[in-house]
Amino acid sequence: MDANLRKRLMDVTETADLTDHPALIEEMRTQFCHTIARRQGPAAVDRYTCAVYAFDLVEDPTYVSIATFGLGRTYAGAEFVEFLLENGLLTERPLEGGVEGDLVMYLDDGRFRHVGKLHTPNRVVSKWGTGHLWEHELWEVPLNYGNELRFFEGPVDDAGLDLFIKFAESKGFLFAGNDA
User: Where are the domains of the chain?
Assistant: First the structure.
């Protein structure tokens, strides 16, 4: 893990204009040996977070209706992922046992900071902050994403939406069958 690369990635994602991110990260190849590559996102970058991407919620009509309801305070962000972790709603895998589609979580002092999807045994696809979708090695991420790594079974079919609905229910949303 190259702390200097990670620091530079943090600087770019926190301070540089979003449109400059791809060129700045590409320029870093002259100073750092990295494999980071931009991926085509499933929607405009302002339409989803890292968790929305990782839990397959991008443009899901049910998710969008909940996330945009009222003041939009119930969405798939850090509070959602922390809810899942605190309530044991995710199945952890050993770091050497991850499979394509699994969740790769980055934590700092045990607190969730970032999530992506395992693409190959050592490569992840994840959305960085308000920025783009990237494919990268496990530790080719901004420094502020933490220094702890955990793998969890990735959602299949509608599992991501089901988990989000449990979270929304915990925030007071009512769905058919739970309004009694």
Answer: 3-170
State pTM to two decimals.
0.93
Tokens at residue 140, please? Answer: 């080719």
Residue-wise pLDDT for 88-106, tens only, equals 999 999 988 889 999 999 9
3-170, which class in CATH?
alpha beta
User: Cα 52 to chain center, whole Å?
Assistant: 7
What burial class does residue 127 get, using C-beta atoms within 10 Å of its C-beta: 0-12 exposed, 13-18 middle, 19+ buried? buried
- Let me know: does 53 contact 46? Beta carbons within 8 Å: no
For the stretch 63-66, contacts whose Cβ atoms lie closer than 8 Å and that sit 24 or more positions apart, written own/partner, are 63/161, 63/164, 66/164, 66/165, 66/168, 66/173
